[in-house]
Amino acid sequence: MTVDIESMEDVQDWTELLAEYDYQRPERGQLREGVVMRVEDNQILVDIGAKHEGIIPSNDLRRLPPEMVEGIKHGDTLQVYVMEPESKEGDLVLSLNMVQVERDWQEAQNLLESGQIIEANVVGYNKGGLLVQVGRVRGFVPASQVVNLHSRTGAEGQQSAMTKMVGQTIPLKVIEVDRDRNRLVLSERAAMQRWRQAQKERLLETLEPGAVVTGRVNQLTPFGAFIDLGGADGLAHISELSWQRVNHPREVLQPGQEVQVYVLEVDRERERIGLSLRRLQPDPWATIDQRYDLGQIIDGEVTNIAPFGVFVRVEEGVEGLIHASELSEDPTHQPGDTLQPGMKVQVKVISLDRQRQRLGLSLRRVDGVEEILEQLNTDEEPSETAVGEE
Question: Which CATH number fits domain 32-95: 2.40.50.140, 3.40.50.300, 2.40.30.60, 3.40.440.10?
Fold first, then answer.
């Protein structure tokens, strides 16, 4: 058959078209758009502008949701991934599943750059850490980046903990993306740190003094308790734990204990939150003048010996002071000569200041106290009668 070419311009046009066609020749790893030409039982034929139609094989279709495959029809435009520009059989092999995989890799890169926190399902583990599923990409969480493993010792302990995590959904932050090595690394520890920082910023912005919130005891120190308010720790100073004397926070709190706390202050510049437990308890000093009168004889327990006197607890949260001058008629008598912490005594109320929370007590003004003190000074066995009792 003879082809009639009207002019050399036509030849030139065809040459340019062929050159353009060769330039767009499909290559492995490309994402191309194509038109569905035929839907068969075990494959889909797609025209992507190559020499011949590409094939999406059945093994690729099985990886997709059935409803997605069933919705594909003749004439649809699809984005496909070039798996093999030319197989052994000479076919152009395409993939729909790999399109989503590539999108998931791009999304992983976006997550790395933005620092956004995601949640992913733990699908397995190996000796090095956890395996998680991020879309259609398998990710790896090193054991050092798993929060619950930091306190585990030994390989067996870590393996046991990771076994229990399979099937759980955990928060994660992408820390490495290497598409060429098919490597996606994530961190639960970094995710929790970022989450806590975001929660801390939110709490510092919204929390106001006077609020009552629920928290969990995170750490006990000699000077107070750090309480987790849900992303940020507040400090309840030891003096704010109870109305009674507290020598160490562990006397009233335990790590992990859930408590209600009163917000004393919020320092947004220094990012500090001051808390109190005792402000939510009845203040025994508020009504102390309803229970005690001047001259009244009351029972108490020695709690502390100081050079200037003796502290006596008369009820929970209320301590009074026996000044050294009120211990005995003997001016040479020292606070520690006869009294020791834990001893029961009877004392007389000689002063009461509710606002300043001061309670003055006297031992020497209690009838019969001199005989008791003299007996103690001679190192004789004291009677069962409390010091100061007739």
Answer: 2.40.50.140
* Rounded Cα–Cα distance for residues 148 and 189 (Å): 9
Alpha carbon distance 226, 241 (integer Å) = 11
Q: Residue written as tokens 């030409």?
A: 37
Q: Which two tokens stand for residue 289?
A: 């003048």
Give the pLDDT of residue 199: 86
CATH number for region 207-280: 2.40.50.140
Statement: the pTM of the whole predicted model exceeds 0.85: no
pLDDT of residue 383: 43
End-to-end CA distance of the chain: 139
Local confidence band at 23 (pLDDT 50, 70, 90 cut-offs): very low
- Per-residue model confidence as pLDDT tens digits over 232-251: 899 999 999 998 888 899 99
Query: What's the distance, CA 86 to chain centroid?
Result: 52
Q: Can you tell me the distance from the alpha carbon of 125 to that of 27, in angstroms, rounded to the nearest whole number?
A: 35
Asked if 236 contacts 184 with a C-beta cutoff of 8 angstroms, the reply is no
Residue 359 is predicted with a pLDDT of 94
pLDDT at position 11 over 70: no
Q: Return the H-helix or E-strand segment holding 199.
A: helix 188-206
Residues 317, 243 contacting (CB under 8 angstroms): yes
CA distances (Å), origin 347, targets 245, 307, 354: 20, 19, 18
Tokens representing 246 are 């507290």
CATH of 113-193, one of 3.10.20.30, 2.40.50.140, 1.10.10.10, 3.90.180.10: 2.40.50.140
